[in-house]
Design brief:
The complex is a heterodimer of chains A (about 475) and B (about 260).
Chain A (H helix, E strand, L loop, with lengths): L7 H9 L2 H23 L4 H17 L1 H14 L3 E5 L2 H14 L4 E4 L3 H5 L2 H7 L3 E4 L2 H9 L15 H11 L12 H18 L2 E4 L3 E3 L4 E6 L3 H7 L3 E7 L3 E2 L2 H15 L7 E5 L13 E7 L3 H6 L13 H5 L1 H6 L10 H12 L6 H4 L6 H5 L6 H14 L4 H14 L2 H19 L4 E2 L6 H4 L4 E2 L6 H11 L3
Parallel strand pairs in A: 1-10, 2-3, 2-4, 4-7, 5-8, 7-10
Antiparallel strand pairs in A: 5-6, 6-9, 11-12
Helix pairs in contact in A: 3-12, 9-10, 16-19
Chain B lengths: L3 E4 L3 H5 L2 H13 L3 E3 L9 H6 L2 H14 L5 E4 L2 H14 L5 H11 L1 E3 H8 L8 E9 L2 H6 L4 H8 L2 E6 L14 H4 L1 H16 L5 E4 L2 H13 L6 E3 H5 L18
Parallel strand pairs in B: 1-2, 1-3, 3-4, 5-6, 5-7, 7-8
Helix pairs in contact in B: 5-6, 7-9, 11-12
The chains are: A alpha/beta (about 475), B alpha/beta (about 260).
Chain lengths: ~475, ~260
C-alpha cells in the first residue's frame, strides 16, 4: 500500500472533522476496551500470563533462526512446502508463481496484515486474478476500495448505514427492496454472497497468527470461520506469514492464545482456533490438496539488529490501538500505512524509514496506556522515544531544534535562567492579569488556537521563596 | 533532627503558578520536615528527553542531581517531573559506569508530593477546609510510571467539607503531553475535550490534579469553551491556599 505517513497532519485534520468516524470510534471505550477489562477480570493470573507471554516471545526472537528452521522441517515433514522471502517483492513473486503455475483464476483471501504490507492484492489484480477478501471487515473495505484502519477490526471506521449503502450498490443482483436494517441482516447477506465465492475459489491465501515449530502447524484465529473456509475449500492453500510469527511449542501457543483474544476482543477464546498442519492426509474428510507456507522477512531481521526486537513481540491484538487516546481521536487511516496506533508508530518508521514517518513517533503524549494493556509488555513509549532520538539526529524540525537549543542554553545556566524567568513572568503576568489567561500570544498559536493559555501569577517561585527566607526571623 | 527535603519546584510551578510551590513547601514542613530550595535547579530536562535530545537531558539530570546534594529527600509537586527524576534519570545513564548508580541512588530519594506525604511521612491528616465536590485528575506519568492513585485521594478525603467524587476513566489522558500539545494542537484539544467529558460526569465543583501541565491544558480549554469549572493543583486545596484565583481565571468568580 502506498504510504501517506508524511501527510499525517493533514490526515488527522480530516479525521478530526469526520463526524461519522468520530461516532464509530466512540464505540471503542464501551466496546473492545470494556470487554478486555471484563475478560482480564475473569483471569486472576492475567498479569502473570502477560509476563509468560512476553518471555515466550523474547526467547523465540532470541533464537529465531533455530525455531524457523525447526518449523520449516516439521512443516515439510507434514507435507507443506516452505518458501522463504527476504522482502515484499520476493514474497509477491513466489505467490505469483504458485498461482500462475496452477492456472488459478479465483482466490479466496483470509485477513492478513502482512499481505497489506507487501501490497499483495493490487499486484495479483494486475495479473488479472479475481481476489475476494473473506473476512467481513476486509470484504467491506475491498468493495469500498479502502485499507484497514485497525489491526483486528479493519472496518471499525465504518457505520452501519455506510455498509448498507455499499451492499445495495455492490450486490445489485439482489432485490432492491430487501430489508437491511439490522447488523444481523447485513451479516446474513454477506455470508450468502461470500459462500458462493468460497465454493468457486481455486486458491486460498491466508495469513497466520502463529507458526508452531513443534508441529509445523500454521495457526489461524477468527470469529467468522472465514480462515477455515479460505484454507480448506480451495485445492491449494497458501499461508503468508512473517518470520516473527513462530512459537516453539503447543504449550507456548496455548499461553499466547490465552492473552491474545482477551486483549483483542475480551473473548476468552476466539470462535475459531485452527491449527493447520500440512495438506489433506489420506483419510481426512476435507482439506487442501497442497499447502504452501511463504515466510517473509521484509525488514524484520534489520529491526532485530537495530534494537527494535521488543516490537516484534507483537501478537497483533490491537489493544494498544483501542486504548490509545490518539487513535481514539483520529482513527487508523491518518497513520498512513498498514499498522496504525501505538505499535504502528513504532514499526512503521522501521519499514518506511524515519524520514517518511517522523510524525508517527512524535504524535504521542507518552501517556503509557498502551504499555499498561499490551499482552506482551512491549515498551512502546521507550521505543517511540528512541525514534525521536533518531529523528532529531537525522535533521528533523529546524524550529523545534532551534527552540530546544535556546531553552537549553538558559536551563543549563541557573542564574541567567532565573533572571530571564523573573523578567519574562513579570511582563506576562502583568499582561494577563485582567483576563487571567491569554487568547492569543505572539508565536503561541500552537497553544492558543484552541485553548487559552493561563497567565502566570507574575512572581516566580524562586522570587517568592527568597522573599520568604529573607523575612524569616534569624 | 527533621529530615531535610529539597523542593524540586518544577519549571511550570516556578514560572506559572508559584503559589503551588509555597503550598507544597507548607505541606512538607507540616509533615515534620525542613524545606530547602536550591537556586541551581531549573528544569528536569523532560522536554529535551522527550524530543530526542538525550545529551541535553543528561546535562540537566546532572545539574539537578548536584543541586540536591545533602538532601534526605527530593520532592516535586508533579508526577511527571518526579517520574523523570525517579525513572528516567537512571535510564538515561544506563551503561555509563558509576554515574548510573549515583543516579539510581539519587532517584530513590525522589518522591512526588502526595506520595511523599502519604507513603514516606504518613502525614494523611489535614487542617484545610473546602466546601464542595472535588474530582481528581490522575496525570499519566504519576499514575502509570509511579503508581500514584490512592495518595492524592486519601489526602483530599481528609479535607474538611470536601466531597470527593470519581470520574470514569474513558479517556486515559488529558492530551497535554508537553511539546505534543503545541505540535499537534488539534489532536491534543480533541483528547482534552473527551477528558473534560469524563471529569464533568460526576458534576464536580472543582478539578484537582497533581501536575500543572495537565491542569493548564484542561483549564485553558475549559476557559476557551466558556465552561465555569475551576482547576487547581491538589497542593493548593490540601494547604488551604485558595487566595489565588483558579488556574487561568482573573478572580475567584466564574470566567466569562
Amino acid at each position: 500500500m502506498i504510504p501517506t505517513t508524511d501527510a499525517f497532519k493533514t490526515g488527522t485534520e480530516h479525521a478530526l472533522a469526520d463526524a461519522k468516524l468520530a461516532t464509530a470510534l466512540r464505540g471503542l471505550p464501551g466496546g473492545l476496551v470494556a470487554q478486555r477489562t471484563a475478560a482480564k477480570g475473569r483471569v486472576p493470573e492475567f498479569e502473570a500470563l502477560r509476563n509468560a507471554a512476553r518471555d515466550i516471545r523474547d526467547h523465540t526472537l532470541a533464537h529465531l533462526d533455530l525455531y524457523l528452521e525447526a518449523f520449516a522441517a516439521k512443516a515439510e515433514a507434514a507435507g507443506s512446502r516452505v518458501h522463504w522471502a527476504a522482502d515484499a517483492a520476493e514474497a509477491r513473486t513466489i505467490i505469483a508463481h504458485l498461482v500462475l503455475e496452477r492456472g488459478a483464476r479465483r482466490i479466496a483471501k483470509g485477513k492478513s496484515m502482512v499481505s497489506e504490507e507487501i501490497a499483495l492484492n493490487p499486484f495479483l489484480e494486475k495479473l488479472g486474478l479475481e481476489i475476494f477478501e473473506s473476512d467481513l471487515g476486509e470484504y467491506l473495505l475491498q468493495i469500498r476500495g479502502e485499507t484497514p484502519s485497525h489491526i483486528i477490526a479493519p472496518a471499525i471506521h465504518l457505520s452501519q448505514d455506510q455498509v448498507e449503502a455499499d451492499f445495495r450498490r455492490e450486490h445489485s443482483h439482489l432485490d432492491a427492496n430487501r430489508n437491511l436494517e439490522t447488523p444481523e441482516l447485513l451479516v446474513a447477506e454477506a455470508r450468502a454472497v461470500l459462500r458462493e465465492r468460497f465454493l468457486a475459489a481455486d486458491i486460498g491465501i491466508t495469513g497466520a497468527n502463529f507458526l508452531v515449530a513443534e508441529t509445523g502447524s500454521a495457526v489461524i484465529v477468527t470469529n467468522e470461520g472465514n480462515g477455515d473456509l479460505s484454507s480448506q475449500l480451495p485445492r491449494t492453500h497458501i499461508v503468508l506469514a512473517s518470520i516473527d510469527k513462530v512459537v516453539p511449542t503447543l504449550a507456548d501457543l496455548a499461553t499466547l492464545l490465552r492473552v491474545l483474544a482477551r486483549s483483542a476482543t475480551g473473548q476468552d477464546m476466539t470462535a475459531y482456533t485452527s491449527l493447520l498442519t500440512g495438506p489433506k492426509a489420506p483419510g481426512d474428510p476435507d482439506g487442501p490438496a497442497e499447502c504452501h507456507i511463504v515466510i517473509v522477512d521484509n525488514g524484520r531481521t534489520e529491526m532485530l539488529k537495530a534494537g527494535l526486537g521488543e516490537a516484534l513481540r507483537c501478537i497483533r491484538c490491537g489493544a494498544c490501538l483501542n486504548h490509545c487516546p490518539i487513535y481514539n481521536a483520529v482513527g487508523g487511516h491518518a497513520y498512513g500505512w498498514v499498522y496504525a496506533g501505538p505499535i504502528g508508530a513504532v514499526v512503521t518508521p522501521a519499514f518506511l524509514g524515519i524520514d517518511a514517518a517522523r510524525d508517527l513517533p512524535a504524535a504521542s503524549t507518552f501517556c503509557g496506556k498502551c504499555e499498561e494493556v499490551c499482552p506482551v509488555r512491549i515498551p512502546i513509549t521507550r521505543l517511540l522515544r528512541d525514534w525521536r532520538v533518531k529523528s532529531l539526529a537525522s535533521g528533523a524540525g529546524r524550529w523545534e531544534r532551534a527552540g530546544l537549543s535556546a531553552w537549553a542554553f538558559f536551563a543549563r545556566r541557573p542564574r541567567l535562567y532565573h533572571l530571564a524567568a523573573r523578567l519574562g513572568m513579570a511582563a506576562l503576568g502583568a499582561a494577563g492579569r485582567a483576563r487571567g489567561s491569554f487568547r492569543w500570544l505572539p508565536f503561541g498559536r500552537g497553544w492558543t488556537a484552541s485553548r487559552d493559555l493561563p497567565a502566570p501569577q507574575g512572581d516566580t517561585f524562586q522570587q517568592l521563596w527568597a522573599r520568604r527566607e529573607r523575612s524569616k526571623p534569624r | 533532627m527533621k529530615p531535610r527535603v529539597g523542593l524540586f519546584v518544577t519549571c511550570l510551578v516556578d514560572l506559572m503558578r508559584p503559589s503551588v510551590g509555597l503550598a507544597a513547601a507548607h505541606l512538607i514542613e507540616h509533615a515534620g520536615c525542613t524545606v530547602v530550595v536550591p537556586r541551581s535547579q531549573t528544569c528536569c530536562g523532560q522536554p529535551a528527553y522527550n524530543a530526542g535530545a538525550s545529551g541535553t537531558a543528561r546535562d540537566l539530570a546532572l545539574q539537578t542531581m548536584k543541586s540536591f546534594d545533602g538532601c534526605d529527600f527530593v520532592v516535586a509537586p508533579s508526577g511527571s517531573c518526579a517520574a523523570m527524576l525517579r525513572v528516567h534519570y537512571p535510564a538515561l545513564f544506563k551503561g555509563r559506569g558509576d554515574i548510573e548508580f549515583e543516579m539510581k541512588a539519587f532517584a530513590e530519594r525522589v518522591h512526588e508530593l502526595t506520595a511523599f506525604l502519604v507513603n514516606v511521612r504518613h502525614a494523611t491528616g489535614s487542617d484545610a477546609r473546602f466546601e464542595g465536590r472535588v474530582v481528581h485528575h490522575d496525570a499519566c506519568s504519576g499514575l502509570r510510571e509511579l503508581g500514584i492513585r490512592s495518595e492524592p485521594r486519601r489526602l483530599l478525603a481528609a479535607v474538611d467539607g470536601l466531597e470527593l467524587v470519581d470520574a470514569p476513566e474513558v479517556t486515559p489522558c488529558c492530551g497535554f503531553g508537553g511539546l505534543f500539545s503545541v505540535k499537534y494542537p488539534a489532536i491534543s484539544t480533541a483528547v482534552a475535550d473527551r477528558k473534560i467529558e469524563d471529569l464533568r460526569a460526576p458534576a464536580p465543583d472543582l478539578v484537582t490534579g497533581g501536575d500543572l501541565g495537565c491542569l493548564m491544558n484542561l483549564a485553558g480549554r475549559l476557559k476557551r469553551t466558556g465552561t465555569a469549572l475551576p482547576c487547581r493543583h491538589v497542593a493548593e486545596v490540601l494547604a488551604g491556599a485558595l487566595d489565588e484565583p483558579p488556574i487561568g481565571w482573573a478572580n475567584a468568580s466564574a470566567p466569562p
